Amino acid sequence: MKLEKLQLPDFVLAELYKDSLVILSDETQPQQDLPEEKANWFLGENKKRVTILVNDAEAVYLRDEWLSFLSAILSACKLNLSDVAIVNHSKTPHPYKKILEKLLPEYFILFDVTANAIQLPFTIPDYQMQKYNNCIFLLTPSLEKMLGESKEAKLEKSKLWLSLKKMFNV
Q1: Bridge-based pairing state of the strands 50-54 and 135-140
Q2: Is residue 114 one of the residues assigned to a domain?
Q3: pTM higher than 0.85 for the full model?
Q4: Residue 108 DSSP label
Q5: 64-76 and 151-168 are packed helices; what angle lies between their axes, rounded to 10 degrees?
Q6: Taking the CB of residue 72, how many other CB atoms lie within 10 A of it?
Q7: pLDDT tens for residues 11-57?
Q8: Which structural domain, as residue segments, surrounds residue 149?
Q9: pLDDT for the residue 30
Q10: Is 133 a domain residue?
Q11: Residue 117, by phi and psi: left (phi above 0), alpha (psi -120 to 50) or beta?
């Protein structure tokens, strides 16, 4: 048998080249769509269409201690990470219209992200809910301000909890 005519099954080729195969993008697809469509730019599964924007320059999605705190808050609201989409605005600064188009949020919680930063046509004070375009918005300070047991952190947690109870009817 000549080696030129030898054909290996796909699974053998994949195993032989598992560390060196490169998949090139389809050249018919516009280049600008590749990063967003190919990369997972949010954390969670968005099952209940709750979009959470954070502003964390130090992490891909958010720091572990922020995630732990956020998970506890979500649990108190009878939600979990699969119910939400967490977007780090610092790493993926999408405007509201793009987020609306991709995630179809019913609830939008912004931690340390201004309405102007995502190109919303309004602004609201922290912890005040605002309905707009079939979505309920809530702007809050950074999750970092809510960590710890200081008087200030407890006050921020309290304000957040009161708003979330109202938002999710818990």
Answers
A1: unpaired
A2: yes
A3: no
A4: E
A5: 50
A6: 10
A7: 555 566 555 444 444 444 443 443 444 468 999 999 999 999 999 99
A8: 36-168
A9: 40
A10: yes
A11: alpha
Name residue, tokens 């999605």.
61
27 domain residue, yes or no: no
Give me the pLDDT at residue 31, please. 37
pLDDT below 70 — which residues of the chain? 1-39
Q: Which whole-number Å values give the CA distances from 79 to 4, 111, 113, 128, 133, in the listed order?
A: 58, 17, 22, 21, 23
pLDDT for the residue 27:
42
- Map residue 164 onto helix, strand or coil: helix
CATH of the domain at 70: 3.40.470.10
> What span, in angstroms and rounded, lies between the C-alpha atoms of 114 and 124?
9
Starting at the edge strand found earlier in the chain, the sheet holding 50-54 runs 84-88, 50-54, 107-111, 135-140, 129-132
With beta carbons less than 8 A apart as the criterion, state whether 83 and 74 touch.
yes
Instruction: Report the domain count for the chain.
Output: 1
